[in-house]
Specification:
Blueprint lengths: L14 E11 L2 E2 L2 E2 L2 E10 L3 H15 L17 H15 L6 E8 L13 H20 L5 E9 L9 H19 L6 E4 L5 E3 L11 H22 L5 H17 L14 E6 L28
Parallel strand pairs: 1-6, 5-9, 6-7, 6-8
Antiparallel strand pairs: 1-4, 2-3, 4-5
Helix pairs in contact: 1-2, 1-5, 3-4, 5-6
């Protein structure tokens, strides 16, 4: 279809291309496994990725940490290079990157009485379904302002069982679902196009990733850090000081975005969001964050490495 042009010959509604970085936290086992399943997605404009990569590398240089930024590797020390790099990345996101990089997380409560376990006889059914829901929620919440959007998907490389169609299922079903919703309400969803038909697997370890995916690997690590922090904020299951300190940062963001937009102070409205589902009425809700119950001293001040 021909595009409407302005009087200067420029497209009135230019297409904006985003890279979508996905990671998850929590393991689903029918009748067992973790209570909370989280899927986090980070939308990064394609034209901005080199700038984002350079900024993340700058934090590495400032802290002297060049290994994988992985939440699971954080321990007691909050003053060492590893924890300082992780904290620097979070501060960078909220202060600068969130202006054009949008993050959304779907947190699924499998212990809710309305969670339908019978729908997921195999773990990857739940994994793929909720990954798709997280992406669709992010598109509706964060990309509504754009008329035309092109997407390419990346996720942390991992072993998948035979028959797991995650790589093809997510892009195709997101595309189909958004198209159907847009027909019902065109103003609420962008006109969507896929730049690649499958989710591209990326190794999150800088020492192992292919050279041509080095920048993408850095962003996979960022979305892992953010999603895992939210898990800790919700569950409070780790006693490691570094994890607690970073989770308190995430909890502050979550609690701020729960307020009406005019009362928020972090300036994260429609930039950062976490949705919890389902409650007893099978709706989204705001559970108490376990990490806020802890009576912790400031963990990043005057502590020995």
């Amino acid at each position: 279809m021909p595009q409407q042009l302005t009087m200067f010959g420029i497209e009135a509604n230019p297409e904006i291309a985003f890279e979508v970085y996905h990671d998850e936290s929590g393991t689903y086992v029918p009748g067992a496994g973790d209570r909370w399943l989280l899927h986090g997605v980070l939308f990064v404009p394609v034209v901005e990725r080199p700038q984002v990569f350079t900024a993340l590398q700058g934090i590495r240089k400032d802290t002297g940490y060049f290994e994988e930024v992985h939440y699971l590797k954080l321990r007691q020390s909050t003053g060492g290079p590893k924890a300082q790099c992780a904290r620097g990345w979070l501060n960078l996101y909220v202060a600068q990157l969130s202006e054009f990089c949008y993050y959304h997380c779907l947190a699924v409560d499998t212990h809710s009485p309305t969670f339908e376990h019978n729908r997921f006889p195999k773990p990857h059914y739940a994994y793929n379904r909720f990954a798709r829901m997280a992406i669709e929620g992010a598109i509706a919440w964060n990309l509504k302002r754009y008329h035309r959007v092109a997407l390419i998907f990346y996720s942390d490389s991992k072993f998948r069982q035979e028959g797991d169609n995650f790589a093809t299922y997510v892009p195709s079903q997101v595309m189909k679902s958004i198209q159907e919703k847009r027909q019902q309400k065109p103003s609420a969803y962008p006109d969507l196009r896929l730049l690649h038909p499958e989710v591209i697997a990326v190794d999150s370890d800088p020492a192992k990733v292919a050279p041509d995916l080095r920048e993408e690997s850095e962003l996979i690590q960022l979305v892992d850090l953010m999603t895992s922090n939210i898990t800790q904020a919700v569950t409070g299951r780790s006693g490691q000081k570094a994890k607690i300190a970073l989770a308190e940062v995430a909890a502050r963001w979550i609690e701020d975005t729960r307020k009406p937009p005019w009362l928020q102070t972090e300036e994260l409205h429609r930039r950062f969001s976490v949705s919890f589902f389902p409650n007893e009425q099978k709706r989204f809700y705001n559970p108490e964050l376990a990490v806020t119950k802890r009576n912790q001293l400031p963990l990043f001040e005057n502590e020995e490495k």
